[in-house]
């Protein structure tokens, strides 16, 4: 009888990609995916360490699992992801209910680790950085994702060491997967029905495999006929090189949305953060891209109330938001992370921090609302992904990644259709089908 594995995923898209690849991998030793956690023989928590009380959240989750399985036999408990990497076997010492701790660069060892545990019942921690072996191993295991829009990790890790960030410690040094390995995985995803590929990396635009850059990869993917849309995330302004900017001149499939985290609108704060870019260089990228295609929009990440942020620095952030008119952004109050340079810096008063976050979010949400409203009574291209949970509407995304809901039949799933927008709110557009733009593509 097959065993069942349930994975609870926290954090970024790279964790989501990893969780799916773990499902693909453990299939080889007889585990099948379950969406019902109560059925699980193996319960894996894929963790994120980026903010707040990440570690405590994991122990809290384990507490919940313990309760669920109080009257049943205990599943195999695996903690994976960035908290696992940061905490190593400290986790097993503190919570003996945990059986295995697996860092993000050790997923190629998961089958062996599970089988060894079953034979010897030993607790184990695998957290060394070994991205080459991981991706070599995974390239021999087919990516089974059958989604219209699929993630594909091309790069992992970070060498930039922003003073606030744990990623260089949890994901290790920058590593770029071999060019052809990525193309093979992309072709496989497209054969499985994907129409959109979202290339992923903690610093995706730092991709460099033997001199081949992200720009080369996009232009190569562009040639695959079944693929309709290409996106990439997350980028660093320092790696937004001219070759990548130029791709926007030639590519028909690269979507006109650039997620380019700026973190702050103040050069002084950027320097305190060790961001390695200025507002001037950020705006140069913005204007170059706008000149190529005025439809290109920007989204960003902001850290509010970073230690040393004065009122005037905060106002610089507000001015930048007014200038760029980000279409969609993430903003959080600075959260001190253990082991980083900024871990012990004096914090800005909590009330002021929350007040600043509120002001920034109001501005960002207002922009988003206005942009969506401006699309009412226009017709836009939408890649149809699936049905809404209640099955009443089709769900798709605009070129700028905004959710679009409208009525239509299932045979539109996987197609790019024209939708006339009738209504909008801050997060979504609501419309009706106008006409199908490309009937040939299945
Ligand atoms: N590599 C990307 C870049 O350079 O912008 C970002 C990747 S990071 C996984 C995602 C986002 O988490 C960052 O852009 C930042 O805004 C946020 N973040 C990271 N550390 C943080 C911290 N200590 N407090 C609050 N937000 C943080
Ligand atoms: Fe973190 Fe991005 Fe800075 Fe790297 S470049 S340390 S991932 S915020
Ligand atoms: Fe979180 Fe690790 Fe991603 S810390 S944001 S899961 S790289």
Which tags fit this structure?
442 residues; alpha/beta; pyruvate-formate lyase- activating enzyme; OB fold (Dihydrolipoamide Acetyltransferase, E2P); 3 domains; six-stranded parallel beta sheet; five-stranded mixed barrel; 21 strands; 23% strand; globular; binds S-adenosylmethionine; binds iron/sulfur cluster; binds FE3-S4 cluster
Q: Explain this structure to me?
A:
The protein has 442 residues and is an alpha/beta fold. The chain folds into three domains: 3-133, Methylthiotransferase, N-terminal domain (Rossmann fold, 3-Layer(aba) Sandwich); 142-373, pyruvate-formate lyase- activating enzyme, CATH 3.80.30; 379-433, Nucleic acid-binding proteins (OB fold (Dihydrolipoamide Acetyltransferase, E2P)). The chain has 14 helices and 21 strands. It has helices at 13-26, 54-68, 81-87, 90-94, 110-120, 131-138, 167-170, 179-191, 214-222, 242-250, 267-273, 279-292, 311-324, 350-374; strands at residues 3-9, 31-33, 42-47, 76-80, 100-102, 124-126, 149-153, 155-156, 175-176, 196-200, 208-209, 212-213, 229-233, 257-259, 297-304, 328-333, 379-387, 394-397, 403-406, 416-424, 428-436. The strands form six sheets. Strands 2-1-3-4-5-6 form a six-stranded parallel sheet, sandwiched between helices. A five-stranded mixed barrel has the order 17-18-19-21-20. The chain has a three-stranded parallel sheet with strand order 7-10-13, sandwiched between helices. Strand 5, helix 5 and strand 6 (124-126) form a beta-alpha-beta unit. The longest helix is centred in the last third of the chain and has 25 residues, at 350-374. The two termini are 37 Å apart. It binds S-adenosylmethionine (SAM), iron/sulfur cluster and FE3-S4 cluster. Residues 158, 160-162, 165, 167-168, 202-203, 236 line the site of iron/sulfur cluster (SF4). The site of S-adenosylmethionine has 18 residues, from strand 15.
């Amino acid at each position: 009888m097959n065993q069942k594995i349930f994975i609870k995923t926290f954090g970024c898209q790279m964790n989501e990609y990893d969780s799916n690849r773990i499902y693909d991998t453990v299939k080889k030793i007889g585990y099948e995916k379950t969406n019902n956690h109560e059925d699980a023989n193996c319960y894996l928590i894929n963790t994120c360490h980026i903010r707040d009380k990440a570690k405590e959240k994991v122990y809290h989750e384990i507490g919940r699992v313990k309760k669920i399985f109080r009257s049943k036999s205990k599943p195999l408990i695996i903690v994976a992801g960035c908290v696992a990497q940061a905490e190593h076997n400290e986790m097993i010492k503190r919570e003996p209910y945990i059986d295995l701790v697996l860092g993000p660069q050790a997923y190629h060892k998961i089958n062996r680790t599970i089988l060894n545990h079953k034979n010897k019942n030993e607790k184990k921690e695998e957290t060394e950085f070994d991205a080459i072996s991981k991706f070599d191993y995974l390239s021999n295991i087919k990516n089974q994702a059958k989604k219209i829009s699929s993630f594909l990790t091309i790069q992992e890790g970070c060498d930039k060491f922003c003073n606030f960030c744990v990623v260089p410690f949890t994901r290790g040094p920058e590593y770029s997967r071999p060019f052809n390995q990525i193309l093979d995985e992309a072709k496989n995803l497209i054969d499985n029905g994907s129409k959109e590929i979202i290339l992923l990396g903690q610093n995706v635009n730092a991709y460099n495999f033997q001199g081949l850059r992200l720009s080369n990869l996009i232009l190569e993917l562009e040639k695959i006929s079944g693929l309709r849309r290409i996106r990439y995330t997350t980028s660093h302004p320092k790696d937004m090189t001219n070759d990548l900017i130029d791709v926007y001149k030639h590519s028909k499939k690269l979507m006109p949305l650039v997620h380019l985290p700026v973190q702050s609108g103040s050069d002084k704060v950027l320097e305190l953060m060790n961001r390695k870019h200025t507002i001037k260089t950020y705006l140069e990228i913005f204007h170059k891209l706008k000149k190529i295609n005025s439809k290109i929009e920007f989204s960003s990440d902001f850290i509010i109330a970073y230690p040393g942020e004065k009122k005037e620095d905060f106002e610089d952030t507000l001015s930048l938001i007014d200038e760029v008119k980000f279409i969609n952004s993430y903003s959080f109050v600075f959260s001190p992370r253990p082991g980083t340079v900024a871990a012990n810096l004096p914090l800005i008063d909590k009330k002021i921090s929350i007040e600043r976050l509120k002001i920034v979010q109001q501005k960002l949400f207002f922009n988003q609302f206005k942009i969506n409203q401006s699309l009412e009574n226009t017709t836009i291209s939408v890649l149809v992904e699936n049905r809404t949970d209640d099955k009443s509407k089709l769900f798709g995304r605009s070129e700028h990644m905004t959710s679009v809901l409208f009525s239509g039949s299932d045979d539109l799933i996987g197609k790019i259709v024209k939708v006339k927008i009738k209504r909008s709110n801050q997060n979504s557009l609501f419309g009706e089908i106008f006409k199908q733009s490309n009937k040939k593509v299945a």
